């Protein structure tokens, strides 16, 4: 059974909610008795090439969870992004990385059950927060990324939308693009604004450094409250990166970074260092 | 190995055989946790013999080399076969199906562009239908409890050869100093 609420205003929603709340136990009883239904879909949250993400409720524990649905197509079987995501999440156990509660196959569809959080970093940054909280978030993200890199895994899709915030603590999600480090990989990963120069120049022998680049962009975004490089195409993105560099001295000429602490600029510089690119050019 | 490990334990940034100490620790824990049962031929399997496994491995490496797959892909597939066999007994007829499904999963996990199922179907000489391969794929995943990032033999060979290289360069340095 699937409950979808479309275009309802607040009062209608309230009424529906009230009715549902009253007959909740009855519905749950019949559903759990009739089939092996464990989760009820409440709402669609997101959609991608891989499948659809739903907000859902666990019938047994009444917990709100996120359901990620993959279709097992005739063309491919279990999609490779699903295989990688499940196997990677299964081996990661860290407070700042999303937990995979279980994976179930119903009617040739693979569902991943994960914890549900309702706010991501982009939304979080729309409000004003104390510096202490922001620093804490940056620190915890760095710890989480170090944790996955220590297990030879590259995330490859770090961006503010993939960092959820709950009680001022970050949670890393979406390992659909991540994989174990290998000598040959596809360069078409990461969202354009957070894509490292080696990926932009179509290099397929990159390593953990691409995650560090994305992290640098995210940290700068937290500090500036807007994305650092907002390119419209790959060439434009490279141009923006080139414009902000003045030789090897980063940002120091740039007035928008004047208010930041020197240590902070150093941190961004370490993340967004061009050493790798220089090796390629020379 | 133990000596070098202990020597470098205090130094956090040191690299052992190309891995940092923490990576090595994580990989070793994984290896201990998912190590296949060494005598599954006797204790778990009823219809198989070591010779059957050898024939399967030969066929798999043939397929992998014909389709130009990475070396890691083959060893990952071998790891899946071994851990499946050490958990569940299968009839002799399905051994090749298990190998095919393992190669399919491994190619999806490791290759940049995964090979299509029909190619594996052709490699198995159409002995199994595509639906059967898909079914086996899901079964392998569930039996392994979706722990598909296994440290392969190839990784450990790399680890030991890197250490050997370091050892040789050290000796050469000493030799030149004298």
From TrEMBL, chain A:
The keyword Kinase applies. Residues 39-282 form the Protein kinase domain. GO terms for biological process: G1/S transition of mitotic cell cycle; regulation of G2/M transition of mitotic cell cycle; regulation of gene expression; signal transduction. May form a complex composed of at least the catalytic subunit CRK2 and a cyclin. It is an enzyme of class 2 (transferase). The lineage of its organism: Eukaryota, Sar, Alveolata, Ciliophora, Intramacronucleata. One of its GO terms (molecular function) is ATP binding. It catalyses: L-threonyl-[protein] + ATP = O-phospho-L-threonyl-[protein] + ADP + H(+); L-seryl-[protein] + ATP = O-phospho-L-seryl-[protein] + ADP + H(+). InterPro entries: CDK, Prot_kinase_dom, Protein_kinase_ATP_BS. Its EC number is 2.7.11.22. Belongs to the protein kinase superfamily. CMGC Ser/Thr protein kinase family. CDC2/CDKX subfamily. It comes from the Eukaryota. ATP binds at residue 68. Keywords: ATP-binding, Kinase, Nucleotide-binding, Serine/threonine-protein kinase, Transferase. It holds the Pfam family Pkinase. The keyword Coiled coil does not apply. This is Cyclin-dependent kinase 2 homolog. One of its GO terms (cellular component) is nucleus.
